[in-house]
Amino acid sequence: MDEIFDELSSAGREHQRHVISALVQNQPGVLAHIAGMLASRGFNIDSLAVGETENPELSRMTFVVVGNNRVLDQVRKQLEKIVTVVRVQDISSEDYVERDLMLIRVTCPPERRSEIRELVEIFRGRVVDVGRNDLMIEISGTEKKVEAFIELMRPYGIKELVRSGRIALVRSSSFRQGNGQTGS
Amino acid sequence: MSEVTTESRTSQETPLQGAEILVRCLIRHGVDTVFAYPGGASMPIHQALVRHADRIRTVLPRHEQGGAFAAEGYARSTGKPGVVISTSGPGATNLVTGLADAKMDSVPLIAITGQVPTSVIGTDAFQETPTVEVCRAITKHHYLVTRVQDLTRVLKEAFYVATTGRPGPVLIDVPKDVQLSAVVPDWDPPMNLPGYNPYREASSRDIRRIAEAIRRARRPIVYAGGGIIASGASPDLTEFMEKTGIPVALTLTGLGAVPGDHYLCLGMLGMHGSVYANYAINEADLILAFGVRFDDRVTGKLSEFAKNAVIVHVDIDPSEIHKNKPAHIGVVSDIKYVLQELNKIVQPGDYRDWLRQIDRWRETEPLKVPDRQDCIMPQVAVRELWELTRGEKTIVSVGVGQHQMWVAQHYRFMKPRTWLSSSGLGAMGFGLPAAIGAQVAHPDCTVIDIDGDGSFLMNIQELATVYCEKLPVKMMILNNQHLGMVVQWEDRFFEGRRAHTYLGPIDRPEAIGKGGSETEPYPNFVEIAAGFGIKGRQISARSELRPALEEMLAYPGPYLLDVLIPYQEHVLPMIPSGATVRDIIKE
User: Fold this and answer.
1) Close Cβ partners of B353 (under 8 Å, ≥ 6 residues apart)
2) How many angstroms away from the CA of B95 is the closest CA of chain A?
3) Chain B residue with the nearest C-alpha to that of A28
């Protein structure tokens, strides 16, 4: 448009999946505050994972949000506005590692154990509990990988399933150009 | 200085109770007045307040909501944080509307609530509510203090957060056992706010971009709001306006940011703004949006608002940029800094054609003052009061509704912090307690609550505060016996069907929209005032208006003037909700 004007992020109707990583103060009520803010402003969260970091005073929250650029811009800014939120990064545009951890219990009569174990190995999972007629399997990886495994297990019969929600970290910056700051 | 060292020496030796620490912290942060209503869970704080009565005035409101609004009136009229204190449970929930109001209008407020002892929190104890949970979304920040040694840090952080960046309310919930347990306080502990960075200044590149956009514009306009007042940038905006010759339209919270009678001040824009201000914003080729948030009451239909203009948006809150309306130049900064930098480089522009165009609109579409001899018109009452108080040290507060809009339109605010209005939240009952807070802070000013009969009734108990605290607050009620703004919408959008908008007895014809205004007004505000020990007078004849206003202003104590007005009058012009400037209603 013009050199003096900001690039107006085309409001963009296309809904994109964004991974947002937030460092927050490790205090009671922070999760409730953030969850309440997201709900009251009508933002949809696909997944949310929270855990302590290497610094016991800080926790990291990883959100997966689906929306257009303007929605994402608001989610990021509204998060940053919360006093106990220390830093917010939309890491979707960066090179990052993403993992989802799943525990899944599937029906498995003894004669099918080896067949399922083979699939578990292909997905680099582990069998963590064996019952007379079922197996509990631990799988971690990207969302796609975890979902592919779920589909594979469906024919056997899924008894129970739990997922951690996605967690993510940006890859080491030493091999990348720039300083990793997204300044838009 | 000697006093400070004495205090620190004794404090090194003697442990102090939490309530004592809390009150001494307030004094250390410059607080001279608190608005506080006691109860079981806040009694220790009140005991401490009495011990420090020589340093800090405690005003007793007659309802916690009144206390919160009074603290807001104090804060809005001074720029200093207002402090309100209540007990737990119902005391705390009664603060909710005031907190939401302070959040919406970015008013620095410290709300301290008592809480049940930590040992019983979560057990549904007597007068227990999860105050922090309730108030999370309507405060800028909040604390539940569980250890007495945290009090000094929490107080320090609370004042810092409430007053910096975009100001707002901070809630501190203090359990009773924390108030009563003792510790040797660290008066100046480090703050723990790693994620809070309120100081924002535009880059020199941003300043140059704004200046370039101004240089290119032929029809520029400033759209300025509460951010100007909050950052103390009124002198800078006035200088900018006069230096460049660019006209200024103000939001409801921005009134007083530039002198209201200045040729370049177009008054208020938006739903009930002047026709010429709205035409100007619609025809402008550059909108300098300074300390505003593109509220729906200003923009109407967003996609049509200022469709063809370049938009420069400066605000200290990053989340406001691009929130409602994408900006061509969006700058996160203290507006005072931006204006100071711009004032160093901007030149007078040649806006003769543009200003001539605005003059034509001003002549053909002025704000109407429909004077009548058979009754008192509300616009006339406001104009007369303005005439009588102009040039005086006057602060005006209002409730919410038609009267609020008539004051915004017809009272010309010359200075910042002289106009107190619940603007974003629109909380009825704001006027009287806000006037109390302002009067406490400004004993030498004439403080006038111009109110509606509906709004006034919502916090009428504060008449007791006015009388007992010996505050010479003036009250002018524009009494039309109806919820006038809702009546206006009934008339415009609901075929005039009355639905609980008449405030008199339900068996009168007015209740179904069939009456004139000949029946005896209800309630009798003058008798109510007398019951509270306050002088009052009721008028309905046009000829009484001026003498009655003069009598009210000359009276040394509090005075209630009940002005009977016709309820059929509408606030005009009006851009209906969600509509555009083309849909403006003038008749």
Assistant:
1) B218
2) 19
3) B144
Domain ranges of chain B: 2-183, 204-364, 378-564
Interface test with A, best of B322, B323, B324 (most A CBs within 10 A): B322
Q: How many domains does chain A have?
A: 2
Q: What is the pTM of this model?
A: 0.94
- The answer to whether the Cβ–Cβ distance between A5 and B310 falls below 8 Å is yes
Interface contacts A/B by beta carbons within 8 Å = 63
Residue B376 has phi, psi (to 5 degrees) of: -95, 120
Mark out chain B residues that contact chain A at CB-CB < 8 A: 132-133, 136-137, 140-141, 144, 161, 192-196, 209, 212-213, 310, 317-319, 321-323, 326-330
B127, B149, B340, B461: the catalytic one is B127
Measured in residues, chain A has a length of 184
- Kindly determine whether residue A29 and residue B136, on different chains, have CB atoms separated by under 8 Å: yes
Q: Which two tokens stand for residue A29?
A: 């009520």
Kindly state the DSSP code that residue B574 receives in the 8-state scheme. B
Asked if residue A14 has pLDDT above 90, the reply is: no
Contact A29 B144 (CB under 8 A): yes
Which overall architecture, per CATH, does domain B204-364 show? 3-Layer(aba) Sandwich (3.40)
AA identity, residue B18: G
Quick check: is A174 in a domain?
Answer: no
Fold for B2-183, please state it.
Answer: Rossmann fold (3.40.50)
Mean pLDDT by 10 residues, chain B (587 residues): 47 86 98 98 98 98 98 98 98 98 98 98 96 97 98 98 98 98 97 95 97 97 98 98 98 98 97 97 98 96 93 97 95 98 97 98 94 96 97 93 98 97 98 98 98 98 98 98 96 95 93 78 97 98 98 98 96 95 92
Catalytic residue, chosen from B103, B140, B176, B474, is: B176
Task: Please report the ipTM that was assigned to this predicted complex.
Answer: 0.90
Q: Please give the CATH number for the structural domain made up of B378-564.
A: 3.40.50.970
Write out the two tokens for B530: 């007398």
C-alpha distance from residue B152 to each of A25, B23, B143, B355 (Å): 19, 10, 12, 55
Q: What is the CATH number of the domain that holds A88?
A: 3.30.70.260
SS (H, E, C) B478-545: EECCECHHHHHHHHHHCCCCCCCCECCCCCCHHHHCCCCCCCCCCCCHHHHHHHCCCEEEEECCHHHH
Is residue B159 part of the annotated active site? The answer reads no
Identify from A3, A5, A33, A78 which residue to disrupt to test chain B contact, counting B C-beta atoms within 10 A and taking the largest count: A5
Between A181 and B208, name the one with better pLDDT: B208
B122 to chain A: which residues are within 8 Å by CB? none
